[in-house]
């Protein structure tokens, strides 16, 4: 069964600190993996997309990694800001049909 | 100002009533999607449409219906047959259905059944 798991479920950090969010998936055949940021009560916004051949991709203070062999991805946030408080969702796309498999998200709270 | 809009932001419904959620996009995207989001769960696909006058069931289509009469619009009707309709509903669109195409999401509609 195609699944995406994320950890931790929630995370609290102080402003200025770094953090890493994890995503494990069993989706096959793999097409790509996206990380989205979702503010409370809003729609998700794409941060990065990773394809099979990519290991690392950065978008400002966000850096995503992908290990296609172990089917794991991580999202590293550097020098966190209060505006980083949101849910971060990992989405894996299968090559088969319209199969987007969404993870449950990690809820990040950045405190002053 | 391009984007995808949903209305209303909040919606309350009595049991046994049908209700329609609006989704409009001016991005000239061919594909549109409806998802349902529940606490602690990933988004689940209700319906999607790859082109005008065509749509396909997603993973949880029972109790829902859609139409795609115009490229810009993809309304979702939550019928009385949906047993647990209280949820956050998200509409999305993409240029096409290729794997690399990014989905752009609307701001969502929170439906509460009283």
Task: Describe the fold and architecture.
The complex is a heterodimer of chains A (112) and B (114). Chain A is mostly beta strands. Helix content of chain A is 0%, strand content 59%. Chain A has no helices and eleven strands. Chain A has strands at 4-7, 10-14, 19-25, 30-38, 45-51, 56-59, 62-67, 72-77, 86-94, 100-102, 106-111. In chain A, the strands form two sheets. In chain A, strands 2, 4, 5, 9, 10 and 11 form a six-stranded mixed β-sheet that branches. In chain A, a hairpin with a 2-residue loop joins β6 (56-59) and β7. Chain A is globular. Chain B is mainly beta and 114 residues long. Helix content of chain B is 0%, strand content 48%. Chain B has no helices and eleven strands. In chain B, strands 2, 4, 5, 6, 9, 10 and 11 form a seven-stranded mixed β-sheet that branches. In chain B, a hairpin with a 2-residue loop joins β5 (44-51) and β6. Chain B starts with a strand and ends with a strand. Chain A binds chain B through residues 4, 9, 31-32, 34, 41-46, 49, 51, 89, 93, 95, 98, 100-105, and chain B through 4, 33, 35, 40-45, 48, 56, 58, 90, 92, 97, 99-100, 102-103, 105-108, 110.
Give the biggest sheet of chain B. 7 strands, mixed
Order of H and E elements of chain A:
EEEEEEEEEEE
Please identify the oligomeric state.
Answer: heterodimer
Mean pLDDT across residues of chain A: 94
- C-alpha end-to-end distance of chain B: 36 Å
Q: Residue share in helices of chain A?
A: under 10%
Keywords:
heterodimer; A: 112 residues; mainly beta; 11 strands; 0% helix; B: 114 residues; 48% strand; globular
């Amino acid at each position: 069964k195609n699944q995406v798991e994320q950890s931790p479920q929630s995370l609290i950090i102080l402003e200025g600190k770094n953090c890493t969010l994890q995503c494990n998936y069993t989706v096959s055949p793999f097409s790509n993996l996206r990380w989205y940021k979702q503010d409370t009560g809003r729609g998700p916004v794409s941060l990065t997309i990773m394809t099979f051949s990519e290991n690392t991709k950065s978008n400002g203070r966000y850096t995503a990694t992908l290990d296609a062999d172990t089917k794991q991805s991580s999202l590293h946030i550097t020098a966190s800001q209060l505006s980083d408080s949101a849910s971060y969702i990992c989405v894996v796309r299968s090559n088969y049909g319209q199969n987007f498999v969404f993870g449950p998200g990690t809820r990040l709270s950045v405190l002053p | 100002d391009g984007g995808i809009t949903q209305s209303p932001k909040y919606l309350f419904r009595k049991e046994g009533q049908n209700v329609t959620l609006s989704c409009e996009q001016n991005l000239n995207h061919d594909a549109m999607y409806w998802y349902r989001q529940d606490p602690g769960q990933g988004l689940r696909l209700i319906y999607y449409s790859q082109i005008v006058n065509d749509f396909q069931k997603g993973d949880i289509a029972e109790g829902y219906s859609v139409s795609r009469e115009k490229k810009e619009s993809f309304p979702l009707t939550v019928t009385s047959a949906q047993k647990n309709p209280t949820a956050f509903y998200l509409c999305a669109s993409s240029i096409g259905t290729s794997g690399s195409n990014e989905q752009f999401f609307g701001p969502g509609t929170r439906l509460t059944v009283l």
